[in-house]
Amino acid sequence: MPLAFPSFYVIMDAVLSGSSTIALAEQLASAGAELMQYRDKQGSSRLLFETSQMLVRRLELFPVRLIVNDRPDIAALVGAGGVHIGQDDLPVAGARTIIGSERWVGCSTHTLEQVREAGRTAADYIAFGPIFPTTTKAAADPTVGVEGLRRARELTRKPLVAIGGITLERAEQVWRAGADSVAVARDVLAARDPAARLQEYRELATHVFGKQS
Predict the structure, then answer these.
(1) Which domain holds residue 37?
(2) Average pLDDT for consecutive 10-residue bins of the chain (213 residues)?
(3) How far apart are CA 190 and CA 18, in angstroms?
(4) What's the total number of domains in the chain?
């Protein structure tokens, strides 16, 4: 059976959250976020370790799974809930060896062939995108669009996370195209009230899926 998967995935991008990362993560966890990824593409390994460790400690009282971007070694060291790897990182099998079987391994894909390949691995979920143009990630891959997402859905039974340019206005069409979850950074982190924005996504997910996200 497919893994039970939250329909909303918060990407805590260090550039967007800045010095407010810890407080914002707690705020979103309090508002009901169940899955969260910490991503810092510019900081040092030590900074990534220290921030990830602090996030694990501060979020342990909430029912939220923290994923560390890129680094399975750091995810294992801090006791995070998993790691998310890209096409240029360790392969899924290598990441799995480091973090073990209890933590999740997610992987990014940008083409249908990569989705097929990821479906043959031990990845717990597959991220696919960018669905729409995004300014959050430097040198982003070409957009795949909602139609590309529909085709990707046909290629795997693993949980499929849509990422890239997702906004509240676009989320419903993305879910209905086959995404199990939408990964969102800027539309939540840069909102006037991030917790309220998160709640809007949760209410929309309830409308789409008939259950609380």
Answers:
(1) 8-208
(2) 77 96 97 97 96 98 97 98 97 98 97 98 98 77 95 98 97 98 97 97 94 54
(3) 11
(4) 1
